[in-house]
Design goal:
alpha/beta, Rossmann fold, 7 strands, 7-stranded mixed beta sheet
């Protein structure tokens, strides 16, 4: 194994994160707390080394990454999740940790990130996870999605263009977005119309004291 694909080793420690061990986090995640925490520990151990997260992120993995990703789960609906531009596994591997019976397909164009995603899924025993190397528009003949997810990948209009063809007939998208989600959704109205999709902005709170996550859902009109 190359240095870039280093083995998961060393101290998998989230103690730099003030939310680690917080009872409110455990209550929010319920019986999936340990599974999500195990992924967070791998990310804390390997994320900076592999260029997945910056050094300043190590003290806020729960807030910025794990809880933010977990907030999308109530908006997924049933079926196969295809996570576009998975990168560090956000939200794809968090979804897999929270819903171990679900099939989750992670689509990522960079080989070194694909290596991380495969190793992390294997290390955590995520049998329902498949990793595909490529861009959304390159895997249209390989996978069909009941739900497409994406986080910090592209604007809504571009995601509709790239990933819309992956959707099953009644498929939907659940996208993690920022404070300008409503404005971004408005700018995408022509792309949505062409694709036959209707958008809605949701506030998705996690635990007290943290800003709610913004989720944009796109479904058939």
């Amino acid at each position: 194994m190359s240095g870039e694909e280093a083995e998961f080793a060393g101290v998998r420690d989230l103690s730099r994160d003030p939310l680690d061990g917080d009872p409110a986090v455990a209550e929010y995640l319920g019986d999936r707390y340990e599974a999500v925490r195990s992924f967070g520990a791998l990310l804390a151990d390997q994320g900076e080394l592999r260029g997945l997260i910056g050094p300043r992120e190590l003290g806020r993995i729960w807030e910025r990454h794990l809880l933010n990703s977990a907030a999308v789960v109530p908006f997924l609906g049933p079926g196969v999740v295809v996570d576009i531009g998975s990168g560090a596994g956000l939200p794809g591997l968090v979804i897999a940790a929270m819903e171990p019976e679900r099939r989750v397909v992670l689509v990522e164009p960079m080989e070194r990130r694909c290596a991380w995603l495969r190793e992390a899924a294997d290390a955590l025993g995520m049998d329902g996870v498949t990793v595909l190397r490529g861009r959304a528009e390159e895997v249209r003949d390989v996978v069909e999605a009941d739900v497409v997810t994406a986080r910090a990948v592209a604007s809504i209009d571009k995601l509709v263009k790239w990933a819309g063809p992956l959707l099953a007939g009644d498929g939907r998208m659940a996208l993690l977005k920022g404070r300008s989600a409503a404005e971004e959704l408005d700018k995408a109205k022509y792309a949505l119309r062409r694709a036959g999709l209707v958008g809605e902005v949701h506030s998705a709170p996690t635990i007290g004291g943290l800003e709610a996550t913004t989720v944009v859902t796109l479904s058939r009109g």
